[in-house]
């Protein structure tokens, strides 16, 4: 039996605070959560959604406080009812008491018992008339009511609800069977008690004095509606959680499929690329997906394509290097072999000159090949800085003007309108200018002029170098950028250039997100015009 003042109200209790030792025990648990790194993404998605639903399922335990509130309301109602009935009985004549007890008990679904001053049972509304209620026998109830009672007991055990006394009909009718009557008589106030019927429904009794002669009135109510209200709320919450769980699992599996399947396809492609089978790999681009997975797929596909291009470029470069080195080596080997068989001093000097030229050519080729192979690595490590392309070009042109041997081919610099600042590597851009100027000077006729012009046009910064040489045919304008492709003037000594200058210049231009092309001269005169186009410096580059 539990008095009204002993009912637990979990909402008013402060949450337990962890001690320092308990907190110390919790820290390793928090670190152990990182062990979920080996758990699959599908399991993680399901776990996150199910945990959220588990928190929602905590509403089952909130129903315990809801039940407590309902019982507290019934306590107040029982107190008011018994006090009103006691007042009515105190003012009623003895002949009217029986009728009044039956009327109140029947209308309010109560059992009223009136005890004398000596504690003997004087009147019982259930004996005076048909009982207003009958306690349910659990043995006669269907199975789902048994399951509901088991669930009630489970929730009580989890939330730590206090034990409630079972209601049993007393074998004797004396007042000694009701401790609430003794307490009410001692205190002179109404006392309310709670017990559980055999079917775990609340039985609420209230005892109060009747008049001033020492009589006591006991009311009893079987609050079936309290249990039914809690079970209905629990059933509704259970249905909602069940449907939410089913929907959450389906959505989680759908989300996992839309994320995990393309990721697994990308992983398989990455493994095949790593194993050297990139030629047989078809990397999914997922063009219909505009989310991060689609962006990842397209980025991975582009990366694979770039890797293939780099592999092709390396293979092609290696083949070109082997081909270019074989020619001077073959010539050198022939000259050295013939020198041992030739007695003529003039012919021996000629063979020696050929061997020396071939050695110099090999040295030049090896140096420029090594330089070309280092450009990509150097550009990948460099940090771009703001550079005024016009000032850089003016510096390069000024430095070349004081070199010996260039007086026969003057270089004129012109600066156009607009801001000519770009983001780049100054040394690499200077190398581009040197290579383009070397090419222009080598094709310029005696007394010819080379013009360098820098301007900002069409949202780009352009540097053009024009010469007055024979020009480049339209069908040759892309070939000249191939490595080791060399079309030199007739008067130039064979092997003086490796054919890597323009290829290196275009590589540097593309690394700066620019282009290097050959166009017709704006004035229509003969000659070649090479244009370096770079993006202007943005606000992000300035920062």
According to CATH, what is the class of the largest domain? Alpha Beta
Content-based structural category: alpha+beta
Strand content: 5-15%
Order of helices and strands: EHHHHEEHHHEEEHHHEHEEHEEHEEH
Ends distance: 77 Å
Q: What count of structural domains?
A: 3
**Mean of pLDDT:** 79
By CATH's scheme, which homologous superfamily of the largest domain applies? PAS domain
**CATH fold topology of the largest domain:** Beta-Lactamase
How many alpha or pi helices?
14
Radius of gyration: 50 Å
What is the second-level CATH architecture of the largest domain?
2-Layer Sandwich
Share of helical residues:
40-55%
Q: Given the C-alpha coordinates, what overall shape results?
A: rod-shaped
Give an overview in words.
The protein has 543 residues and is of the alpha+beta class. It has three domains: 2-235, PAS domain (Beta-Lactamase, 2-Layer Sandwich); 283-378, Helix Hairpins; 382-543, Heat Shock Protein 90. Helices cover 53% and strands 13% of the residues. It is built from 14 helices and 13 strands. The chain has helices at 20-32, 41-57, 59-91, 94-108, 125-128, 143-159, 179-187, 224-274, 292-339, 345-381, 389-401, 426-443, 501-511, 539-542, and strands at residues 2-3, 111-115, 121-124, 191-196, 202-210, 215-222, 385-388, 411-415, 421-424, 450-457, 460-466, 515-519, 529-534. A six-stranded antiparallel beta sheet has the order 1-4-5-6-2-3. Strands 8-10-11-13-12 form a five-stranded mixed beta sheet. Strand 4 and strand 5 form a beta hairpin. Helix 9 (292-339) runs antiparallel to helix 10 (345-381) and helix 12 (426-443) packs antiparallel against helix 13. The radius of gyration is 50 Å and the shape is rod-shaped.
């Amino acid at each position: 039996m539990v008095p009204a003042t002993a009912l637990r109200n979990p909402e008013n209790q402060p949450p337990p605070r962890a001690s320092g030792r308990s907190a110390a025990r919790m820290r390793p648990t928090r670190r152990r959560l990182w062990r979920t790194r080996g758990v699959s993404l599908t399991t993680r998605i399901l776990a996150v959604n199910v945990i959220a639903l588990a928190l929602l399922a905590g509403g089952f335990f909130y129903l315990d406080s809801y039940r407590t509130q309902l019982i507290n309301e019934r306590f107040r109602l029982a107190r008011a009812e018994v006090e009103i009935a006691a007042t009515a009985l105190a003012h009623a004549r003895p002949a009217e008491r029986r009728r009044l007890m039956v009327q109140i008990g029947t209308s309010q679904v109560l059992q009223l018992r009136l005890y004398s001053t000596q504690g003997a049972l004087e009147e019982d509304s259930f004996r005076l008339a048909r009982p207003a209620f009958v306690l349910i026998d659990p043995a006669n109830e269907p199975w789902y009511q048994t399951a509901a009672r088991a669930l009630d007991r489970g929730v009580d055990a989890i939330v730590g609800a206090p034990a409630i006394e079972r209601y049993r009909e007393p074998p004797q009718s004396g007042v000694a069977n009701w401790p609430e009557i003794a307490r009410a008589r001692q205190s002179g106030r109404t006392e309310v008690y709670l017990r559980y019927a055999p079917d775990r429904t609340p039985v609420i009794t209230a005892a109060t004095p009747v008049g001033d002669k020492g009589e006591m009135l006991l009311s009893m109510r079987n609050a079936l509606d309290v249990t039914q209200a809690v079970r209905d709320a629990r059933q509704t919450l259970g249905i909602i959680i069940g449907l939410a769980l089913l929907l959450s699992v389906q959505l989680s599996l759908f989300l996992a499929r839309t994320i995990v399947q393309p990721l697994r396809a990308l992983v398989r492609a990455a493994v095949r690329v790593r194993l050297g089978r990139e030629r047989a790999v078809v990397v999914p681009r997922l063009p219909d997906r505009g989310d991060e997975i689609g962006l990842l797929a397209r980025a991975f596909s582009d990366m694979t394509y770039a890797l293939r291009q780099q592999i092709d470029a390396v293979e092609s470069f290696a083949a070109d290097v082997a081909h270019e080195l074989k020619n001077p080596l073959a010539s050198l080997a022939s000259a050295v072999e013939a020198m041992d068989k030739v007695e003529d001093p003039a012919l021996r000097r000629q063979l020696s000159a050929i061997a020396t030229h071939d050695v110099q050519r090999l040295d030049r080729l090896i140096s420029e090949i090594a330089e070309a192979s280092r450009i990509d690595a150097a550009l990948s490590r460099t940090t771009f800085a703001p550079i005024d392309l016009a000032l850089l070009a003016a510096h390069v042109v000024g430095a070349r003007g004081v070199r010996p041997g260039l007086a026969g081919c003057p270089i004129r610099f012109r600066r156009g309108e607009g801001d000519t600042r770009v983001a780049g590597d100054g040394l690499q851009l200077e190398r581009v200018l040197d290579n383009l100027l070397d090419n222009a000077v080598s094709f310029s006729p005696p007394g010819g002029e080379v013009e360098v012009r820098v301007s900002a046009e069409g949202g780009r910064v352009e540097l053009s170098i024009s010469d007055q040489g024979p020009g480049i045919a339209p069908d040759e304008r892309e070939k000249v950028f191939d490595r080791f492709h060399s079309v030199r003037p007739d008067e130039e000594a064979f092997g003086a250039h490796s054919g890597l200058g323009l290829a290196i210049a275009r590589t540097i231009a593309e690394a700066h997100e620019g282009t290097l092309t050959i166009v017709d001269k704006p004035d229509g005169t003969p000659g070649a015009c090479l244009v370096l186009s770079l993006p202007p410096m943005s606000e992000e580059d300035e920062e």
